[in-house]
Amino acid sequence: MQLLSSFGKKLIIIVVHRTYVQYIQYIYIYIYIYIYICVCVCVCVCVCVCVFSQIIWNILLYFIVSLYTYYSLQGEYQRKLYKELLENYNRLERPVLNDSAPIVVELGLTLLQIIDVDEKNQVLITNAWLQLGWTDVYLSWNPDNYPGVQTLRFPSNQIWTPDILLYNSADERFDATFHTNVLVNASGSCQYIPPGILKSTCYIDVRWFPFDIQKCDLKFGSWTYNGWLLDLQMQAVDISTYIPNGEWDLVGVPGKRNELYYECCKEPYPDVTFTVTMRRRTLYYGLNLLIPCVLISGLALLVFLLPADSGEKISLGITVLLSLTVFMLLVAEIMPATSDSVPLIAQYFASTMMIVGLSVVVTVLVLQFHHHDPQGGKMPRWVRVILLNWCAWFLRMKKPGEERKASYKYEHSPAHHASASSIQMGVMPGQPSSTNSTTNGHMNLYFGYHSIDSACCPPSSDSGVSCSGGRVGGSPNEEQREAVRMFLGEQEIHRILAEVMYIAQRFRDQDEAEAICSEWKFAAAVVDRLCLVAFSLFSIICTFTILMSAPNFIEAVSKDFT
């Protein structure tokens, strides 16, 4: 049994060992097969790449050779064509088959920028390109005979070019264009586009400045050829690449072809005129000139509100006038020295200066009224009626102290006082008078003006004292009068009354002088108020009338100030 069991174990070990060896062998076989397949695939790919790369290289080489051959032949054709075209070419000869036929030249313009508008020198500076086109019959060829040669470029001094110039040029060289090459195609069509900074004369109409629209002409034409030899035709203006200007808005550039006949010649002379229409942008001038002027004119009205006693009315008016003069000088610096028209802003400044100047004159008159010498006489009747009655009523002004005077008259009416002209010394009105000359050491003194001459009591007195029956107030009895005469004496009474009359007269003269001064001061106040109202209305009317008279005032305000 033991032998059998040991034999069985050995048999199992042998079987397992053989199975493991076979498994390892299978794995090696699979690895060999995978490596072989990969090597085959790599070889195939390399072969394919080599084959296709050779094909691609051949194709690229073919194209390179073709292009080289093409361009080398084109360069040869161009050289040959240039030589053939210019061999018998005369740039002084018009390129037409029939010498009696005109050559048609088309003229266009590309406006790039408005550089400056010099109002002082009346010059417009623009950046533009001219577009000239014509047909040169001597510069045509058959493209089939010259493969690849579609266009040629000639310097402008080698072939015929039209002598188109800017008639109203203000440049020192007159012709300010840069002479570029002329582009010529196979049919003989020539295209010449010379750029340039064009300086042209322009009449600047400053009547509506700064709300003005200017129209500047660019007049182009042949300098030597007439209309029978050169027919100038117009093309549209191109403004698609226009650069906006900070001072001017481009409204449009219309063109027109004209034919002029001069007295010397019967041939027509055509020209093409492009009108550059532009509107001035008013925001700058409004903020720096118009609005300060309006504010300064408003300050001029404050002269009439300033009290006359301040002593600064004339100074304020002169200061405002000088400030307007400075603004007027600023406007004169940018305006041309022309007498054809007065600028709108100059009209407004002139009207404002006139208002300020008149305000200074009126201020002098007001100060003369306010500080009028009472010794110079009373106010004339017509002045009193016009100023103190009519104008004061119209302006709803009342004389100072008029209400107090009415109240004073009411309080001192006869209904409130039984006697307003009695002079009592030591006794109050209404108290019973004693018949004795002295009472408790005090003297009660009564006297009346009836004991003096009638000259002592004038017919009418401004002091409120009235004479009735030759006496003042009541009538003291004879005993009291005798007591007064005995106590003072007749001469002493006359002397005292004379002194009292002198003092009263001085007070009356002083009151009269104060009344005259008050009357003149009130007249000065009325003139101040009247001029304030009148000048305010006149300033407002002038502002709107002058500024709104510009044809494009509403358009300028709506576009520039919004």
From TrEMBL:
PANTHER family: NEUROTRANSMITTER GATED ION CHANNEL (PTHR18945). The chain crosses the membrane at residues 27-49, 55-73, 283-308, 314-332, 344-367, 379-395, 530-554. One of its GO terms (molecular function) is acetylcholine-gated monoatomic cation-selective channel activity. It comes from the Eukaryota. It catalyses: Na(+)(in) = Na(+)(out); K(+)(in) = K(+)(out); choline(out) = choline(in); NH4(+)(in) = NH4(+)(out). One of its GO terms (cellular component) is postsynaptic membrane. This is Neuronal acetylcholine receptor subunit alpha-7. Keywords: Cell membrane, Disulfide bond, Glycoprotein, Ion channel, Ion transport, Ligand-gated ion channel, Membrane, Postsynaptic cell membrane, Receptor, Signal, Synapse, Transmembrane, Transmembrane helix, Transport. Residues 289-546 form the Neurotransmitter-gated ion-channel transmembrane domain. Pfam families: Neur_chan_LBD (PF02931), Neur_chan_memb (PF02932). Residues 79-282 form the Neurotransmitter-gated ion-channel ligand-binding domain. NCBIfam families: LIC. It is a multi-pass membrane protein. The lineage of its organism: Eukaryota, Metazoa, Chordata, Craniata, Vertebrata. It is found in: Postsynaptic cell membrane. Its main location: membrane. PROSITE patterns: NEUROTR_ION_CHANNEL. InterPro entries: Neur_chan_lig-bd (IPR006202), Neur_chan_lig-bd_sf (IPR036734), Neur_channel (IPR006201), Neuro-gated_channel_TM_sf (IPR036719), Neuro_actylchol_rec (IPR038050), Neurotrans-gated_channel_TM (IPR006029), Neurotransmitter_ion_chnl_CS (IPR018000), Nicotinic_acetylcholine_rcpt (IPR002394). Belongs to the ligand-gated ion channel (TC 1.A.9) family. Acetylcholine receptor (TC 1.A.9.1) subfamily. Alpha-7/CHRNA7 sub-subfamily.
